[in-house]
Fold:
Amino acid sequence: MDKVTTVIPSYRRPALLKRAVQSVLSQTHKNVEVHVFDDSSGDETAAVVSEMSARDPRVKYFCQPVNRGMMQNTAAAVNSVDSEFFTILNDDDFLAPEFFATALKAFARHPQAGVFAGRLVYWNHEAPRKTQPCRFLDRGYYEAPDACIRSLNENKTHTWTSMMFRREVLHCTGGVDPNAGYAADLDFALRAMALHDTIVSDARCGVYCMHPGSSSYASWIAPCVESLSYIQESLQRDPALSAIRSNVISAYRRKCRKMIGMAAIMALVREELSSARVAAEFLHNSAGAPIVGRGLRLASSHRLVGACSRLALKSVRAANHVRKAVQRNSAWRGHEAFVRSVLEHVAAAPGRPEA
Structure:
């Protein structure tokens, strides 16, 4: 039976980490290992993981000698994988019990594929009505680099929570690049899908946990812009992408325009003008959208025209918020029920592996 290793970079959230680990141990596919990489947190993470490891030897604990930072720790975790298949799990997210079994069946049908992607549900326990599936590619089999380019062109989500990879992906991509920073997960997923055939399933495989503060763009626009710029430069010089570089870069720039353009608008609505200006500069100088960039510069100014522009954006945003709320009222319950069923399964799972 194929072994799957799940790496969990841990960042001072031991209570949530325990749930993440248990969601792997309670998979219907039992040949799994969980590698928790502690970034020298100095909190109770070691004790929590040691307790779980004592009950279930499939849990392994690794601790960095010094705090290396989020992406350095993540890169070390991912690049240590030695099993044929692996997944990457944030310490506050969790997995559906059939995820691994579903992915491995798909890989068995398509042995040439390197990437499996299942559906992902966004969930905020403080706002259940916002529970919704992320936007990903239609179900099907995509030869490289189609999944990469189509997901960029169609503005679909890229996150590794509900993805499984063959180990050979690490050799072709070079693993997680810690220098990619904030968007290193995007960088890794794009490279994997650009260089390997990808299977996309309709099965809901994971839950991505949103937090009350995650709706604010102010804290992440600057590091995200820096990361996106680095990734673009890295894609331009990667020899593995030489045959498909122009298509990938073109699609990537469109993705950046959509992502940062929306972030800039949200920053303007919240009167986070310095963040909006950072986004405007990126769009003007790096993402091939100089007209949009100039418009956002103007809207983020303290002049009357800027204030009027922001007022108009707030009005449109408020109307759009009402429209989306009406849509969610008819759709969120099924996804919320799925999340609750996964939580119940994880909570009820035995503390030791099945014989």
In short: The radius of gyration is 21 Å.
